[in-house]
Amino acid sequence: MSDLSEPRLVQPTTALRESYLAGERADCLAEGRSTEWLAPAVEDFDAFVAERSGVFVRWDVPCTTFWYVVGQDYLGTLMIRHRLTPELTNVGGHVGYHIVAPWRRRGHATRMLSAGLPECRRLGLDQVLLTCTRDNEASRRVILANGGVPDRPYGDEDRFWITLGEGPGTGEGRR
């Protein structure tokens, strides 16, 4: 049995309704963004979760979403895109992630990405591309801490490759 006090990746679940909504609202408020996008979740959280569970299509590619949680607290989201389009090769990459504002600056993003890399490997990916805007130093540190190797930039985006090893844990960079 796993220790529920340790952060872990889980499939989206209705059991985290209040924590998810509170975290995402706080995130929007901290960044000065509208919370309107949360309306479907507030109205029908079961349907909202169902749309994000398992494999679904977004950006014209299959995607898998995980929530990063500790106990019953939602900390953030990690999304794995199963393949790249030309657009995702430049901006977006295979993996997107965020930690909601109340849980930032505690190392959660680094650990969440590390936990997500074996999931990428299970999906058959040998290496993954991650991108971040040039001014996002926090994301850059997360990617580098997980073995990201810089590649050519694209516009305002920096791009990094992580080569996935055979076993669990982080990648070792692109060769």
UniProtKB/TrEMBL annotation:
It comes from the Bacteria. Pfam families: Acetyltransf_3. Residues 44-147 form the N-acetyltransferase domain. PANTHER family: ACETYLTRANSFERASE (PTHR39173). This is GNAT family N-acetyltransferase. It comes from Actinoallomurus acaciae.
